[in-house]
Amino acid sequence: MDRLPLPLPFSADLLWRYPLGFPNVAQPQQPPSSPLMDYKSQLPTTLATDPRVWSREDVITFLRWAEREYDLQPFDMDMFQMNGKAMCLLTRTDLSERAPGSGDVLHNVLQLLVREANIVQRCLPSSPVTPTSRHSYPLSPHSHPPTPNWNILAQNGNDFHSTHAATLAAHLMAQSNSVTLSPAPSVDSQAGSPQHAEACQQTTFGHSIFSSGSNGSASGSNQSDSDEDSFPDSGKSAQNNTSPPNTPSAYSLAPPMPYSMPPKSPKEAASSPIFKSMAREFFPSESPEPNTNGRLLWDFLQQLLNDPSQRYTSYIAWKNRDTGVFKIVDPAGLAKLWGIQKNHLSMNYDKMSRALRYYYRVNILRKVQGERHCYQFLRNPTELKNIKNISLLRQQMSPNRPAPQPQPTQLVHMTIKPEPAEVDQEQSRVQEFDDKPTDLSMDGPTDLSSNSSRHTNITCSPDTPSLRDVPSKNFYIKEEEK
DNA sequence: CACCCGGAAGGGAG
DNA sequence: CCTCCCTTCCGGGT
């Protein structure tokens, strides 16, 4: 392998995405708006800093406060008969519907508060994250950390137990293990989640990331909305040089391959001394890596596609994010990256594309006819990740049916879209999905609807001949078969 | 020739 | 031993 242009997503990327989320490190890019701390300090003292623990009354209190504070139109409190947790699950769109004209403001404020709360929580040594974390709350989408603090991490490199690292690690572990169940890496990739501003990441990435990747999107259905912000200006470059992470320090800290060669399996990775020690330290009784989530091709692609800093657009890029259409810009290069990821150095586009073709039959992907190197995701990452009932689906599907027949209605609701009702912690933690990997052997149609995360279009025109644009509500829409 | 398509066989991991 | 998810080959079509 000659070139390794950019750090692979999983590792470095994650770090990149989840830079230390300490308050003060907050994103510079963040609009000039007042730092979170300000919000917090101004919040009514009766309110907990974590909006997720607010009661209905607290929600009302908060809204009243927001009305005054931001000069917003009076809210229709009937639209907010929910507790804080539920409110946090509302997407920007949801909020806008409930509070026309003020949705954005509410969304932003909530996200900031949640993120802050998460950070604080996570950084509390004594509280290893609970499974709830998987809940990815709508953490801010807009927060792509401008620059990862590779250096900081690097400095701690040796002493991993430094609080920071430890905490971060704990969090990470939590995410990847306890939360485990929602490993779909991609999820986070999808728009909204990157933000899990989790602070952690460091070392573990290699895998955990994968594994947990994503956040849990599961329920998260809502987290999504954030995407809009995720890609402020996407079209831009991404050329290699643009990327920050590509710096030496980045490599040193989060080298593309965390532990020498790409671990062949998550397990291997998990076996890293560091990982183990952390696991022991934070999850003594629990065996790490319950989940088998290795890196799957679709997930890998999602990660590249949704890289917050758009570092891989020279390899692969969305053509229409809403419909899931993407283009492999550099087939050979992408294949190489994939090969590195899987440690199959002889990987080439021909082989990789074969793997992609296997996704056709399970309706994960489809080829965009007429356009070279263009494919379309038929399922959004959240769904993919949650697909566990695949076996059921499989049973329902007739094996003989070669081509997926789109049946919009037959969905599998795996994603629980928390219609903001009351959501309590218990519940949320229960709605766990398995993360059994998608079963490629199935072949019938399944639906893709569910979802929650929304994708935003970034780039190009929606126009693929064969694609019909669909209501943006569905992320990846399935279109009639040929 | 590059791309695309699937069948077939096999392998690594869980 | 079985399943999943590719990986590797390959013949054939556009």
TrEMBL record:
Keyword Nucleus carried by entry: yes
Domain (PNT) ranges: 33-117
Name of the protein described by the UniProt record: Ets DNA-binding protein pokkuri
Start-end of Polar residues biased regions: 180-193, 236-250, 447-464
Pfam families xrefs: Ets, SAM_PNT
GO MF annotation: an example: DNA-binding transcription factor activity, RNA polymerase II-specific
ETS domain mapped to chain residues: 295-378
Compositional bias segments (type: Pro residues): 255-264
Species the sequence originates in: Aquatica leii
Biased composition (Low complexity): 207-224
Region (Disordered): 125-156, 180-199, 207-271, 420-482
UniProt subcellular location: Nucleus
Family: Belongs to the ETS family.
Annotated GO CC locations: nucleus
Subcellular location, principal: nucleus
Skewed-composition ranges (Basic and acidic residues): 426-438
InterPro entries: Ets_dom, ETS_fam, Pointed_dom, SAM/pointed_sf, WH-like_DNA-bd_sf, WH_DNA-bd_sf
Keywords: DNA-binding, Nucleus
The organism's place on the tree of life at top rank: Eukaryota
Alphabetical GO biological process terms: cell differentiation
